[in-house]
Amino acid sequence: MKKIELNVNEVNRIGQVPNKFFGHFLEYMHDCIDPGLWAQLLKARSFENINSLSEATFFPWEKFGMNIICELDKDRTYAPMYSVHIVNNADDEAGIKQRDIWINKGEQYRGYVWAYCDKKVNLFIKVYNDNILYKNSFDLLPGKWQKVEFDFYNDYPSAVVSLCFYTTEKSEIWLDQASLMPKCARDGIWNDVMFKVKELSPAMMRFPGGCVADCYFWEDGIGDRDLRPCTVNKHWGGIENNNFGTDEYVKLCRETGAEPLICVNFGSSTPQDAANWVEYCNGDDKTKYGKMRAENGHREPYGIKYWEIGNEAFGNWEIGHCSADEYIKKYLLFAKEMRKKDPGIFLMACGGDGGSLEQSWNETVLSRGKGYIDALSMHFYAPLVETLKVDDKQMYYAVVSAAEKFNRVIKLTCDSMEKTRLKVPIAVTEWNCNYGDMDNSDREQSLESAISNSCSINMFLRNINVLNMCIISDLINGWAGGIIRSNNGKALKTLSYELLKLYLEAEIEWILDSKYECDKFETFKTGNLEAMKNIQYVDILSCLNKCGELVVFAVNRSLNESYLLEMPNKKIKFFEYIWADDIHTKNIMDNEYNIERVRVAGSGDGISLLPHSIYKINFV
Hints:
By secondary structure, this protein is α+β, with helices and mostly antiparallel strands. Helix content is 20%, strand content 35%. An 8-stranded parallel beta barrel has the order 3-16-19-20-21-22-23-24, surrounded by 6 helices. It has a 7-stranded antiparallel beta sheet with strand order 2-27-30-31-36-33-34, with helices on one face.
């Protein structure tokens, strides 16, 4: 077994790690927020959806009955934009139902629907599969919208059920804004999801995107949830009910101890709208939008410090994408209006493509943003192979070397700051291992990706003097990289989740200078990663924790070789590692701990690093 001698200079400290460094990201992307975070069991709870032709529909609700008319109605609604109008033309059961709702054994559920009728009628509500879990009827009084509430306890085995609203006589009713949630949900959030988010102790929480930020209108997500409009997600598709908006987001941040970071709509909104959002969050209750916040139950200002103006505006996939020249002109208009509302906010400008070594975007933005840019945000994703077929070994070594590419981009961005004489922190507001939208392998959840992400974290921390945050994407579902996988109220920790906990629990305070030599390898061009040479098989980060103890993170990138890591004059207190036989291994819902972190008491001054493994080693 080959040896690596690690020499650490505990006096030469590279930099101190900020308290608000490791962050997370929530976006209205597919199933990230609804239903990954938000515990609403009903799809299209407002009876509003769109089909493949962008036509309005109430799918997945289905009408049932022998002689029934069921259609969307714009004229009589409880909330914008539609209600569902049901005409029962027979003295028989007829109405609307939704199938495939997952119900857990031993849980209490609460539901409701808003209903209207012109003539008195009985509305029936039933929850059933082979068994009837709940059934009741309610008298509807004519001429006004009524909230019909119901609750039930499920004593049957966990299973899918159907929920239906119906009448049993000739009648005409309108329904709007239905809901069904588990009673155990914490402020609308799945209990198990909340528990696992709090376990991560998130330092930062970014919202509402991401790409969707540039088509998100914040006023759609405030006030009474039953009166919020449904909106089309113009980037990711589908309909959003806007149940989780600014106030819910801030409440989650307060509950989990995270610092809020809001990315405003640069692509399809206005500087004034962004300024209004700042006022809603930070203005006192005598301002127009601060008063609105107070009326929504939050008199004291939120005091949100961090604001990002736009997302990936350089990319042709982004709504409102533009040239660097167009971006900085518009950015300055946003920044000036937003600072009128709160001069103390911290503003982040959109940096160039983190997957490219090209720096013209950054140079243009930095050269003209002095006084209005507090940080430059950047995103790092690799290998983005999409449908490209790549040899497994080639893919592995390229992916676990991605941090070397990211490091080059950071160094070049720092050079651009020197050139333009505007030195501000780099805010990494999105990063993760990402094989591309067209790749369906879910390798983002594998040991291979965790190894890559560990090398990226090591690289970010070695650049601590120029970075002020690193926010992994996404926190929950959304795409294959979501580090918590949420389904029907059960939350799964992926390997990258376990990896982040490994770093967080180390309580790193100082990054140290360290030197070592080991074998090197080279990679081939793969996706957005260029061919690279002289990559060390073992990547090592040395730090001091808050107690002044030496902590070393060692990532063995070799597929086959073990290495003996030795440190003269130091003894191992204990170590933890993440490893599996197969680099494609991942945790799954039926076997969450397919790979577990293993903790071992230490002895001696050396440790054998298994192939394709991640270690945290505490020394005394």
